[in-house]
Amino acid sequence: MRPLLPTILAAMALAAAPLAAQLQLPRVPGVGGIVGNVTGTVDDTLETADRLTAREARRLLRVRDQTLARLLRQNSDVIERDVRGELARRGELLAIEASAAQIAQLEAAGFRVLGRERIEGLDIAVTRLGIQSGQSLAQAQARAAAIVPELELGADNLHFAAGTVVAASTSAPLAVSLAAAQAAPITVPIGIIDGAPGNAVPVAAIKGFAEGAPTASDHGSAVASLLRATGVRTIRVADVYGQEPAGGNALAISKALGWLSASGCKVVTISLVGPRNPLVERAIKAARERGIIIVAAVGNDGPAAPAAYPASYDGVLAITGADRKGRALIEAGRALHLDYAAPGADVYAFDAKGRSKLWRGTSFATPLAAARVAAALSNGQRWRAALDTEARDLGAKGADKVFGRGLLCGGCGKK
What we know:
The protein has 415 residues and is α/β, with parallel strands linked by helices. It contains eleven helices and 17 strands. It folds into two domains: 338 residues, Rossmann fold (3-Layer(aba) Sandwich); 77 residues, Alpha-Beta Plaits, CATH 3.30.70.
């Protein structure tokens, strides 16, 4: 069975082709959002893309939902829907900081302990619970919550990449206007939670958190190469996909964040999007309490989509994408808050084989913004003040819901 990440990107390319042609989007508008229907009034959520009509926004979500439903059918042996209808690892629940008495109650009700671990670097205890045969994950999750309502418990939800390749480039070398040779070196270590990069992108360390990891991926290579091109010296990569069909799950992401925290990363960039999850939320909070700045993409499900995570967790820098004309990406998703924009269209980066390609999506805006955070820290600056000074105001004057506090790294990612 093929890993879920490349499968979902390939499926999106086929499912979204008619929509992409109509909207003049790249063939894959990007997977990066939350399964679900449009909620709230579309008029209130469309201000991020004045070229996108309410009907097209709904269609963008329908394409994604249909694609994920197809992937669920194709991988039903390893994934299923949780109590909210979100995709998750099949047959498993995650209990956070569960007491012996709470576990005993669940075992008496037929749940099985599959494993116990304490997440390195974050000191979070997690118990993996198997559900009874014949029960769906949604049924088991609701039942467990009724038995121990005070226990923090959730499914092992899946997260997906928020961008994809648009076209191959004819020239091999990757360069940006903010060249590493010209810019002051960025010495603060940056961590990446994604797929692994290929050999063409040198990094300080790679650790796998999924079956078959580390495995070189195009998406992870692109993210890492953008950091290298902006002058970042030390990059550590946590591969949460490997070759696992249910990779990118909440437990893998939380363990990855713990390892990056213990490894001394001061900034972590996450170009993945999924639903709100109690374990990931707890891991994000613990990492922030240790002084780590987390930068995350808002996804590519369009402005009518439900709020995306981890970008929507408290204290996470939520990053959207803009094109080279300073317009918001019409497929850009949304978060509960928005901090900054960065280039997310016509961005050049390496694939897993070291080939320079053209990429699109909020996935690629996110590492560019993370590099500016690390640059400020490397220079001993107050990073928020430094970013606000650098950010170019776009759209409505001042901070807004389309570009946040402005565009960072505007010249980055160019040839």
